[in-house]
C-alpha cells in the first residue's frame, strides 16, 4: 500500500488568483460592478440620502473580497455554463435550464453570500429578488440564450450583502457620534 500523503503535492490556495477569477467571470457573464452598485443604491438610498454610487461600488468591492462570496460566484457561474452546454444530468439540466421555482439551490447558494453580513441582508435580498430591478431584470430574461439561474440570485445577494455592510457601518457611525456627545 502506498502512502499518498507523502507523494501528493501540498495544496495551497492562491487567494488573489481566486478573487481575480471571480471578477473575470462576472465580467465574462456581462455583469459590471457598477450595475451591482446601482442595486445597492436602489436598496439603501431612502435610508441614507447622502449615499453615493462610489461608496456603493466600494462596498460591492469589499463584499467581493470575501472568500465565501468568491466560492459562491465561481460555483454558480460554472453550473450556469454547464447547463448552457447541456452537460448536467437530465433532471438537473431541465431544472436549471428552466430556473425551476421549486429547485431552490440557486437561492441557497445566494444565501451563503447574504449571510456574510448578517440577517438584515435576507430582507434586502428578498426585496431585489422579487422586484428584479436593473441588471437582475436582464439576467432573468430567458431570451438571451444564456442561462443565469444561479447568477441572477448571486448578483442580488452581492448587492444585499453590500447593503447590509453599509447599514452596519452607518449604525456604528451613529453609535460613535452618540458616545462622543
UniProtKB/TrEMBL annotation:
GO terms classed as biological process: lipid metabolic process
SUPFAM superfamilies: YutG-like (SSF101307)
Recorded GO MF terms: phosphatidylglycerophosphatase activity
Domain YutG/PgpA: from-to ranges: 45-167
Matching Pfam families: PgpA
Signal peptide (from-to): none
Gene3D superfamilies in the cross-refs: PgpA-like
Record-given protein name: YutG/PgpA domain-containing protein
Source organism of this protein record: Paenibacillus alvei TS-15
Amino acid at each position: 500500500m502506498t502512502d499518498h500523503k507523502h507523494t501528493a503535492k501540498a495544496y495551497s490556495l492562491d487567494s488573489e488568483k481566486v478573487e481575480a477569477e471571480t471578477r473575470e467571470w462576472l465580467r465574462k457573464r456581462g455583469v459590471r460592478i457598477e450595475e451591482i452598485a446601482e442595486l445597492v443604491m436602489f436598496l439603501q438610498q431612502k435610508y441614507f440620502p447622502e449615499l453615493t454610487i462610489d461608496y456603493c461600488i466600494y462596498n460591492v468591492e469589499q463584499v467581493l473580497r470575501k472568500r465565501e462570496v468568491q466560492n459562491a460566484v465561481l460555483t454558480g457561474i460554472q453550473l450556469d455554463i454547464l447547463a448552457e452546454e447541456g452537460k448536467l444530468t437530465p433532471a438537473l439540466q431541465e431544472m436549471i435550464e428552466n430556473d425551476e421555482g421549486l429547485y431552490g439551490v440557486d437561492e441557497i447558494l445566494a444565501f451563503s453570500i447574504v449571510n456574510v453580513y448578517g440577517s438584515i441582508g435576507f430582507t434586502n435580498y428578498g426585496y431585489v429578488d422579487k422586484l428584479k430591478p436593473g441588471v437582475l431584470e436582464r439576467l432573468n430574461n430567458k431570451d438571451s440564450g444564456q442561462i443565469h439561474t444561479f447568477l441572477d440570485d448571486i448578483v442580488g445577494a452581492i448587492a444585499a450583502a453590500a447593503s447590509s455592510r453599509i447599514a452596519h457601518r452607518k449604525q456604528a457611525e451613529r453609535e460613535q457620534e452618540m458616545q462622543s456627545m
